[in-house]
Specification:
about 500 residues, mainly alpha, Sodium/glucose cotransporter, two-stranded antiparallel ribbon
């Protein structure tokens, strides 16, 4: 074991999480307890769980990976989440007043049962992908702690912990431990930053290790690439089932709004701190102070092990573990809740007892967690995989969900078409880019999509094709009057 202090710190922290989860498990008696913590979360707990849910592997590994590659232009990345949260804050109280459980409840109330099923398919697909790269992130940390572990064994160990922990008490364990995770994130990154800033030599030292392109405002990003990188997280957070589920869990509508504002401040601060931390780590590598990590996305973890004093490094590593666990359990709980609430309870066993629903929720957590484990070995590119998952969700669900609130003439036909086009085109576009050169169909389709010598698949992000088609379907297939089914999403 190469880093005994780091390992001991992480073990103590994980055991504390399990103890808290086991304690909260005794309070789980109904599906609402498991999925929404009994609708009793205070503003402080909500802020903690909202921030900890959003600041995940996409930030710690994906944004760090991009910062390592492009330098200062990565400071634009938090803009997407910040703007999305501000927009969501305006809806927070309205969401809480709906007294619903999942976003599919909103969609069915506005557009009918077909939308509940389609949204569940899109949500499960995107969120399982998100959970899969949380496993990979946790695996990379575990392999630093125990170098003798292979990638498969480390990933399996992380998956087993996340699955069992999430199944223990659902939202009750997730929300309250997220508060601890959020505090640990702020303390760990906050202490590490000034130390690394001093080691690098401040702003001048950081800039000295950057190329001219890495110092420019947009760097290698063209306007299309810039929009293609920032639009997916913006769309995800506007329709993120995790955010809505937490707003549904708030004690009051006013508390939900206050928590959203607190989330905006917390996320913006943490995102910027993580990007600067990654930039400083990259500067230490380029100056020769530490060796390069095996993967660009590991730069913050690598820095924690090799550039900080052991005690502070252990604290930052525990911070990374907190980030991985808090995001993985949230994105595993949401699709499990959706399958039980929106498929089993709605269409298969409407009269199922509360005990059976809680048991089925736990079974779904295990099943989806194992499915994510199978996907975890598909790619080691954190930023690209994150954007892919965000794109599927943001193009399929977010436009239809916003239409439920703001487009009175939106029709069921338009909503179904928008969801199918959004998800289908996003998956097809990414698949062509991934398989061209390997599969004849992808290569031929890629060649067909060349316009004026421009490689559209390579130059235009999937979100810039799928989102306009999804939104366009909603606008083109509008009806003369608003349709309504079992309720109104406007609250």
């Amino acid at each position: 074991m190469a880093f005994p202090l780091h390992t001991a710190f992480c073990l103590v922290y994980l055991l504390a999480l399990v103890a808290l989860g086991a304690r909260k498990a005794r309070s789980v008696h109904t599906q609402e307890d498991f999925s929404l913590a009994g609708r009793g979360l205070s503003v402080g707990v909500l802020v903690g769980t909202l921030v900890a849910t959003w600041i995940g592997t996409g930030s710690l590994f994906g944004n760090a990976e991009k910062t390592y590659e492009i330098g200062l232009p990565a400071l634009w990345i938090p803009l997407a989440g910040g703007l999305g949260i501000l927009a969501l804050a305006g809806l927070a109280a309205r969401i809480r007043r709906l007294e619903m459980v999942t976003i599919q409840d909103i969609l069915e109330a506005r557009f009918g049962p077909a939308l509940r099923v389609l949204a569940t398919l899109a949500l499960v697909s995107a969120y399982v992908i998100i959970v899969s790269y949380q496993y990979r992130a946790g695996s990379s940390i575990l392999q630093y702690l125990v170098p003798s572990l292979g990638s498969f064994e480390a990933t399996l160990a992380v998956a087993v912990f996340v699955i069992l922990y999430t199944a223990l008490a659902g939202m009750l364990s997730v929300a309250y431990t997220d508060v601890a995770n959020g505090v640990l994130m702020l303390v760990g990154v906050g202490i590490a930053l000034p130390i690394l800033w001093h080691q690098v030599g401040g702003w001048e030292g950081w800039q000295a290790q950057l190329t001219p392109v890495q110092q420019s405002p947009l760097g290698y990003w063209t306007p299309l690439k810039f929009l293609g990188a920032l639009l997916p997280p913006f769309l995800l957070i506007l329709g993120d089932a995790n955010m809505y589920q937490r707003f549904f869990s708030a004690r009051t509508a006013g508390g939900a709004r206050k928590a959203a504002i607190g989330m905006f401040l917390g996320v913006l601060l943490m995102e910027l701190m993580i990007i600067v931390l990654a930039g400083l780590g990259a500067a230490l590598v380029r100056s020769g102070a530490i060796e390069a990590p095996a993967h660009a996305g590991h730069i913050i973890i690598h820095t924690a092990f090799h550039a900080l004093p052991p005690a502070l490094g252990a604290l930052l590593v525990a911070t990374a573990v907190a980030i991985v666990v808090s995001t993985a359990d949230s994105y595993l709980l949401a699709p499990a809740t959706s399958l039980v609430r929106d498929v089993v309870q709605r269409f298969v066993q409407p009269d199922a007892s509360e005990a059976r629903l809680v048991g089925l929720s736990r079974v779904c957590v295990v099943g989806l967690g194992m499915l994510a484990l199978g996907l975890a070995f598909a790619s080691d590119r954190f930023f690209d995989v994150a954007l892919f998952a965000y794109t599927i969700y943001g193009c399929a669900i977010t436009p239809v969900l916003l239409a439920a609130f703001f487009l009175p003439r939106a029709t069921t036909q338009g909503a179904v078409t928008a969801m199918v086009l959004g998800a289908g085109v996003a998956i097809l576009w990414e698949s062509v880019g991934y398989f061209r050169g390997q599969a004849a169909w992808a290569t031929q389709l890629s060649d067909w999509l060349q316009v004026g010598g421009v490689d559209l698949v390579g130059e235009v992000a999937a979100v810039l094709v799928a989102f306009p088609l999804s939104a366009g379907a909603l606008l083109l297939l509008r009806g003369p009057a608003r349709e309504s089914h079992s309720g109104q999403a406007s609250g």
